[in-house]
Structure formats: structure tokens, C-alpha cells
Amino acid sequence: MEERHKKILQRNRTNLVRDLDPSKLYDGLLEKGVFTQDMIDEIKSAGIRRDQARQLVIDLETRGSRAFPLFLECLQETGQHSLAELLQDGAPPIQLQPATPTQVVRPVLQPIPVSSPMDVDKRIKDEVPLYPVPRPTTTPSPSPEREHIRPRPQGRPRRDSIQCYKMDASPCGHCLIINNVEFESRSDLSNRKGSNIDCDKLESRFKALNFIVEVKTNLKQRQIKHELSALCKMDHSQYDCCVVIMLSHGTEVSHSRFPGAVYGVDGLHVPVQNITNYLNGKNCPSLQGKPKLFFIQACGGGEKDTGFEVSPDEVQPSIGGADADDQTDAIPMSSSSDSLSMSDEPDARATLPTPSDILVSYSTFPGYVSWRDTQAGSWYVEILDRILEENAATDDLGTMLMMVNHEVSQNSAKGIYKQMPGSFNFLRKLLYFQSQA
Q: Is 249 an annotated catalytic residue?
């Protein structure tokens, strides 16, 4: 498909997902050769109408240069004129050229000579070698609707086989936010100014995404475990997803498989590996096969990243600056931590279990601090909230987290220190949140 047609589809994806009726298009798209029956079956299995519409638009971009005009033709034929006009608005007129019939060249058949036994000796002596008649190629030329479709390398998953998680339950699921702000004096951990800003943003955002949001504030280690256990014991059968958000101090701990821990306000920590294990398929059967999402705004250790020099083309204006309000949420583990003013604090590193359908998004790379502005909240949450607001209607979660990674990486604390978020993705399908009506 031409790049300009891809951009038209991407620019209008929200309207297509909202208004397109894919069930009316399947026969026409199959008849015109845009999709095979297997591809249409995959799209149908994506879920409800909106999910099927989204998957159809995504797959359409891979179907060659004639896919876009044939799609418009199908829209007109099925009475979806407003969508056809929307896609044609601003685009140059498209002239469909009829497919040129392929001329089939028949091979020339040579008769087999027949000789009597009496002529054998003579034939051997006088035999003139026969050279085979060249066989013309019978390989058909590609049909116009298949041009520019590159063969898929062996061993790579087909894009059209990727499905989307079912995310149409209302409400979509539970979202637990644990926001630790004020720490006991005996914990030797400072209070996390600005964390309430993060909490308010995420509470509003996930309510807008149709989740049941519950916020718990200033929990001790035992209370964190209790809330996670209660979430694990709930019946999630009628829901499609579950979200846990941890806003706290964090640190590195000794571990057998996964590093990182989040602090309770009493100074005792809970390994992130244990946090995720509460909701895995073994411990929470009603969430088996459903996405479990964990967002960790906390430090991954005490190291502070000064970054490295890049070409000017890679540099973008930083959101953060030489602001004394930049803080982190980790406690130092060794003498490797730089000496900064007491207003600079770090946030925790996350871990993940092995079961499928789990994604853990970290605010920072393991071993490093996570920065938080006391006035605007943490870099990670501020950008995550904005990316979800602007892109949840059109992009999957993995794509949006990549956007978050890029934007956070452009920030600088005190004009020196950098931060790099990341995620461990064990999801098996694309995840699209419910978009607002």
C-alpha cells in the first residue's frame, strides 16, 4: 500500500473503529482478493465489532497498492458512503486499472518416434541427438492486487495472525492504585512530595478507560500484601483486565529471579516479583488468559544516569531542567550514589513473573533512580497520562509505552541526569483500551 494511503487510514482510524461495519465488507474484500478466507476468519475472531474494525484497518495496510481503492469501492457498495467520503477527502482521485489477463503459453509437444526392431542397429549408428525443446515458463505473473506484498520470512509470525485481547466488558476491570506519600520517621525514607499529583492523574485516566479504580494511601508492607491478596481473591470472571499501580520508594534487593522491591511506609519492602505473582494464572484463576498490567513508579536502585553524547539530530528540548524540585524515590544502597542536595529523591524497580498475559512497566531502567517533580509529579506518570489521553483510541498499549520511553528519555534533571523507562511484556496479543465515546 502506498504511504499516502496508509497515512489516510491512520489519520482516520478513530472514526473507522467507531463507525465501520466490517461484517458488510467481508464478502466484497474476499471476492476482490484483498483478503484470504483465513485472514477474514482471523479478523472475525478479534472480538466485537469495534475490535474487528480495528484489526481490519491494521491488516489492510499490508495488502498491496490496490487494497485502498478496493476498500473504498467496498464501502460504497455496502452503503457506508460517509466513511468512503471521509477517506477520499483531500486524497487525489483513484483510478482502478482493470487487471490485465495473463496469457498462458502452452508447451510444444513433440511426437515420440516409433521404430521397428529391424531398424534398431541402423538407428544407433545414424541416430542424430535430439535436443529438448525449451519449455516456456508457466509461472503466472502476480495479480495487481498482490503487487508490493513481500513474502514473509520463514519463522516470523504473520502480522495478520495477531489478535487483540477482548476488552469490551463494562466496566473493563479493577484498577488498584497504592500511593505511598508519608513515610514513618523510623523508615529513614523521606516523604514523596508530588506523588498525589501522579495518583490523581492516574485515577482519572483509568476511570476514563472504564476501570473500577480503588486508591489506597500510605500502606505498610503488611497492608500492601493484604490489598493484593484481596484483589487476587476477587471474582474477575465478568471483567477483561486488571491493573495495579505502585507509587512509592523502591530499592534493589537480593533475588533469585527478578530484582526490585517497593517500600511500605514502615520501611519494609515487598518484592515486585511477589506483587505480580498475586495475579498470575495459578493464584488468580478468574484472570487466566486475561491481561494483567503493572505500572511501577519507583526507583530501581541508587545509580544516577548522566547519559551520553548524541548527534544534534537526536536531541530534543528537555521537559525537565535545572530545577531544584526534581526528586527521586530510592534510598542509596552503596557509595556509588552521587551526592546531591536533600531535595533530590529516587523511585523503585519492578520485577515480573514468568506466566503469560502479564506486562510490567517500569518508570526507570533497573538499578537507576526515577525522577519526580514536587510540583508537577513524576516524569513517567505525567507523560504516561498524556500519551494515554491522546492515543488510547487508536494505538495499542505496547506502542504507547514506546512513546512514553522516548519522551521520558528526552528529559534531564538538573540539566545532567537522565531516565529511561522500560517494560517486560509477556502479553500474547495486542491490547487496546476502551476509547471514550
A: yes
Beta strand 211-217 with 173-179: parallel, antiparallel or unpaired?
parallel
What pLDDT is recorded for position 164?
92
Asked if the model's pLDDT at residue 162 lies above 50, the reply is yes
Taking only the tens place, the pLDDT of each residue in 213-268 is 999 999 999 999 999 999 999 999 999 999 999 999 988 766 655 567 899 999 99
Q: Grid cell 487508536 — which residue?
A: 394
Mark 267-295 as b/e (b = at least 16 C-beta within 10 Å).
bebbbbbbbbbbbbbebbeebeebbbbbb
Q: What pLDDT digit, counting tens, does each position of 242-255 carry?
A: 999 999 998 876 66
CA 50 to CA 20: how far, in whole Å? 8
User: Which of 24, 125, 2, 13 is closest to 58 using CA atoms?
Assistant: 13
Say which of 5, 174, 249, 269 is annotated catalytic: 249
* 216 φ/ψ angles, rounded to the nearest 5 degrees: -120, 130
Stated pTM of the model: 0.57
CA 379 to chain centre: 20
- Cβ(123)–Cβ(113) below 8 Å: no
Q: What was the pLDDT predicted at 180? A: 95
Domains of the chain as residue ranges with CATH: 3-89 (1.10.533.10), 173-304+354-426 (3.40.50.1460)
Largest CA distance in the chain: 117
Matching residue, cell 466490517: 22
Q: Report which of 294, 285, 290 is spatially closest to residue 241, judged by C-alpha positions.
A: 290
Q: What is the pLDDT of residue 326?
A: 56
Mean pLDDT of the chain: 75
Q: How much is the pLDDT for 363?
A: 86
Cell triple for 197: 499529583
pLDDT for the residue numbered 418 = 62
CA 215 – CA 203 distance, rounded (Å): 8
Measure the CA–CA gap between 185 and 181, rounded to whole angstroms.
13
Number of H helices and number of E strands within the chain? 13, 12
Tell how far CA 359 is from the center of its chain: 10
* Cell numbers that stand for 249 in this block: 520508594
Let me know if 199 is a catalytic residue.
no
Q: Per the residue annotation, which of 175, 199, 232, 299 is the catalytic one?
A: 299
